[in-house]
Write the structure tokens for this entry.
Amino acid sequence: MGSGASKSATELHGHELLQHLRNDINNNSHAPLDCSDLQGSDVSKADLIRQVGTMRMVIKKIAEYNHSEGALPTISDDVSTPANAELIAEPTSTPSEPFTLVLIRHGESEWNKTNQFTGWYDSLLSEVGHAEGKAAGQLICDNGLEFDQAFTSVLTRAVVTCEHVLQNSGQSWMPVTKAWQLNERHYGGLTGLNKQETVEKHGKEQVLVWRRSFATPPPPIDSTNPYFDYFRGDRRYANLSSDQLPVAESLKMTCDRVMPYWNTAVVPVIRSGQRVLIAAHGNSLRALIMNLDGISEDDISGLNVPTGIPLVYSLDPVTLKPIKHPDAISPLSGRYLGDQEKIRDKINGVKNQTK
């Protein structure tokens, strides 16, 4: 783009923006949007690329509007708004290489160790959990995996796991986005309870429904639970509305917050060619894996995600559907890094938390 642009990208309309974009695309037909002349504007390069994707997509959109006399609608700065959904999700050119996505559940937490329902409670990593995060980073390093962007929740066990992974793979400088939408599911009235004691009180089948069914939430948290005020006083959720702050969540309800965030915040980054790491939680990752791998509501109850093991996906560059790896453990398409027998043992360990 030419130098001396005085308007921000959100103020450029119609023929003016089209001319700027054509100038860039003539130099390199597959180049991402060059925002180098927008210094001092209210839109950063990363924000603009995330909103409009790549050059060819924007050219196509603008060309459609050039057939009418109306002004080109302003491109919103808020990538989460539904008005941007079509613009963000649309593929651009056809890359030849699959996209890389790595998922990892946080390392063992103190409440994992004591077999308590954790959910939104901010349990810290145990000594084992710290070791798992560091070992995961070394595995990623040994396998030559590099990232351009990382995402995690606002819960410390996931944030610190993400830090361990990046530090031990030599990528601690990596940009990291923290989002409450990637939090663990809220366990409601079960928060803080021992899982095995809950089985003894309510029965194995009922607890299995609460833990692993798709649509049935656990009992809501109320004033009888010692952690009732804990969540409402947590300032990391100060900007959430009463509708957004849950009192209990099923996996379906977790999907309802994870997948919109995936589509509006993560997918555009992947489509721009960036390699992504997501460090999150058992159920927020189950929600994502369910949609990536097309796992049914009935079958998702049998999926258990082990702590601290990197799960590597190769995504089709056009559809973003996973390309099945020959070492994938069914029903997944991605492969876990590490000793496969030990990984299966860890998966069974998660399954057997409520015998």
Observations:
- Residues 1-93 have pLDDT under 50 and may be disordered.
- The longest strand covers residues 99-105.
- The chain has two domains: 9-89, 99-351.
- The CA atoms of residues 77 and 286 lie 30 Å apart.
